[in-house]
Amino acid sequence: MKFRYSIKTAVNGLKTHKSRSALTILGIVIGITSIILIMSLGTGAKDLILAQVQGLGAKNVIVLPGKEPSGPSDLASLFADSLKQRELDALKNKNNVPNGRMVMPIVFGSESGVYGSEVYKFSLFGSGELMETLFDLKPEKGFFFTDEDVKSKASVAVLGSKVKDKLFGSDEAVGEKIRIKNTSFKVIAVLPKKGQSSFINFDEAVVIPYTTMQQYISGTKYFNRIVVEADSEKNIDIVSQDIKKTLRDMHNITDPSKDDFFVSTPAEVAEKLGTIFNALTIFLTAIAAISLVVGGVGIMNIMLVSVTERTKEIGLRKALGATDNDVLTQFLLEAVILTATGGLVGIILGSSFSFIASILINKFAGLAWTFSFPYGAALLGLVVSSLVGLIFGIYPARQASHKSPMEALRYE
């Protein structure tokens, strides 16, 4: 009963100074809003990236030329030429990679397509006929190119949905011809709308046989990637090791640190990205937490001012029988209620901003971004904000409780 009365008294005290109370919790609101926003967007980004990794195929092993990049700005592998036809043939050989089921090279670049007066720039991929299976690219209209098209270096193209819309509008595209870098390509298929998948936006891409791309577009003999599908997920590590051994033997490499290629699996990519996201989330959350400390200091200062201004009120309460503990409890409750309210407002604002951001990202970036409410972070934020009020409210509350009733009543 007495505790309920203390809560009521604390709430009434805060209502008396509404503007001051609102300004006092501003730092807490900003801190909790930032934490919730960071955690929510971080989870959404992590889910998106993991979905892209899964799109690579759980059984696919990706072989890339050059040394493994040391960071995002290390683009040397894009220009390395350590993967050529002989490496492709070696990886297709069952004696070298017995558990490899399908092997396919990829060459990529950026080109413009022309149809009549329409011109549109897109990502261009040269691949084998297995691209349809490995990346789940079943055409909406027409048929994917065949092994025979690859061998004959056929000038045929499979269009992404957005490329088709930009060049042909509502007209039929299959059977028509587009020009890419002075070469005429017959459109044999149009892909359904897929959005971002496997780190590739196939809606804004065109796929042609890799032999055709090397002959007429890139003029190179090397591949940017070789994809090897394992016969089962449990054998993916075995396939990865077989690939490394095969290429090291071919390139006379005895020291793994001298590899002129690197091998990546979806699981490894997911693990690395997960580590990066976790570290980044912790770092940003730590920065946001600073505002909680600043908010706590602000609360302590405002509470000290409040104690001074309410000296007569304290004296009157004590004269009417309130104990030091009663006054201490009242001022502590005021601080905790303030910060808990700030935490609750921060949770609402942070989740609202994150929800709006997810809608905007989906609409304008074309990414399958999902809103994720961080229940754990919200609960922790509420607890932490209350603790901030408790910790930074102790000193002002003790100052108030130790005031002498006689001196307090004489205070002007």
From TrEMBL:
Keywords: Cell membrane, Membrane, Transmembrane, Transmembrane helix. The keyword Transmembrane helix applies. It is found in: Cell membrane. InterPro entries: ABC3_permease_C, MacB_PCD, Macrolide_Exporter_MacB. Residues 286-405 form the ABC3 transporter permease C-terminal domain. One of its GO terms (cellular component) is plasma membrane. One of its GO terms (molecular function) is transmembrane transporter activity. Belongs to the ABC-4 integral membrane protein family. This is Multidrug ABC transporter substrate-binding protein. It comes from Candidatus Taylorbacteria bacterium RIFOXYD2_FULL_36_9.
